[in-house]
Design brief:
Blueprint: H1 2-15, H2 32-43, H3 47-51, H4 57-73, H5 78-84, H6 90-106, H7 108-113
Helix pairs in contact: 2-4, 4-6, 5-6
Length: 114
């Protein structure tokens, strides 16, 4: 798993040299793939559906939940989440995090479950 994060770091560094530092990836939880798998299992989706660009409502909701969990709970920066989970731009991740938070605020029973 650490190799995946390291690989993503080098991929990002090639795209924008000097901008990314390996230390910025240090707060990515080591079990992020397990978090992703748990969300997929609970929602009865495959991991590929979250990582792909599939825009089905189920996949989008799961993707937003994963991004929210990594950003709000684990304090992973938005651009790091985008890098490690499919090359999304930080603004796309930001939109997903805010949209999921809005949905949680609208449904307090779901907020307790998350």
């Amino acid at each position: 798993m650490a190799d995946e994060v390291t690989h993503c770091y080098f991929r990002a560094a090639r795209r924008d040299p000097g901008r990314r530092r390996e230390s910025e990836y240090s707060n990515v939880p080591p079990d992020w793939a397990e978090i992703e798998a748990a969300i997929c299992k609970r929602r009865m989706l495959g991991v590929r559906s979250i990582r792909s660009g599939w825009r089905g409502a189920e996949a989008v909701e799961a993707r937003f939940e994963l991004w929210w969990t990594l950003n709000v709970v684990h304090k992973v920066p938005l651009y790091v989440i985008g890098d490690i989970l499919g090359g999304y731009d930080h603004s796309s991740v930001s939109h997903g995090v805010h949209e999921y938070q809005r949905r949680l605020d609208a449904r307090p029973e779901q907020a307790r479950a998350a």
